Amino acid sequence: MAKTIMVVDDSLSIRQVVGIALRQAGYDVIEGSDGKDALAKLTGQKVNLIISDVNMPNMDGIAFVRELKTRPAYKFTPVMMLTTESQQEKKAEGQAAGARAWMVKPFKPEALLAAVQKLVLP
């Protein structure tokens, strides 16, 4: 059975690029346009990994991860931040919220898939 990865980014083009790379690698993909949209789509189904942007309207990626980790079904779901932010403070804030990995845009699809393979839940 295919593993499911949620991609949360306010940029449609980023969601498309990441979605294409993941689908070609055999993953199922759920997309969210920001933190609020993503939380609304997480209804208890198994998600093996979440890839989220940091800077988004309505609810940013760090607030999204904090909220996600309060939900029993997603407490242990690994989260990778995919963002233009590379400052150490932002990374520390993301890790404190519960993010397991940090990848800076622009990214290479191969590097993204390698990180996904390391993080994705069995």
UniProtKB/TrEMBL annotation:
Residues bearing PTM 4-aspartylphosphate: 53
Record keyword Ribosomal protein present: no
GO terms for biological process, alphabetical: phosphorelay signal transduction system
One protein family per Pfam: Response_reg
Limits of the Response regulatory domain: 4-120
Alphabetized UniProt keyword annotations: Phosphoprotein
SMART domains: REC
InterPro entries xrefs: Bact_response_regulator, CheY-like_superfamily, Sig_transdc_resp-reg_receiver
Listed name of the protein: Two-component system chemotaxis response regulator CheY
Organism: Pseudoduganella lurida
